[in-house]
Amino acid sequence: MFSFFRFLSPLRAIRDLRAFMGQRRKHELWFMAASVAVTTLIIVAFAHDAHVTPPYQPPTIIYAKSWPLNRTEAQILADQKKSMAEKKVEDAKLAKLRKKNQEEFEALNNKLAPWL
């Protein structure tokens, strides 16, 4: 374990890098500098983008219905029928909205079809 670290030295690393750079041609060094700059720019951009704080959103409170414990079956069935009617109305609105969106996309597709 210790024998591995005895070969590691910052001065040796700098000398080795300098010897390597001395053997390179000028255009190779320019391309190396450009590639290091582009890579550094990309890494810095990702690091900067990662530190953006999201806007504050207040917590969403969801209320649940509270029923008395002594409800009768008739009351339960009446509530279910009322809920089913409301659900059918909401489903109809959603289906109408989906149909409208589908028609808009089909119209856009028909306009763009000659370009494909």
How are the secondary structure elements laid out?
Elements: H1 2-5, H2 10-22, H3 26-50, H4 73-112
Helices and strands, in order, run as HHHH
Structural class: mainly alpha
Q: Report low-confidence residues grouped into runs of 5 or more.
A: none
How does the major sheet shape up?
none
**How many distinct domains?**
2
What gross morphology would you assign? elongated
Integer-rounded radius of gyration: 34 Å
N- and C-termini, Cα separation: 64 Å
Helix content: over 70%
Content of β-strand: under 5%
Mean pLDDT: 91
DSSP summary, beta strand count = 0
Describe this structure in words.
This protein is mainly α. It has two domains: about 10-50; about 75-115. It has helices at about 1-5, 10-20, 25-50, 75-110. The protein is elongated and about 90 Å long. The relative contact order is 0.03.
Key traits:
single chain; 116 residues; mainly alpha; 2 domains; 4 helices; 0% strand
Give a quick summary of the entry.
The protein is mostly helical and 116 residues long.
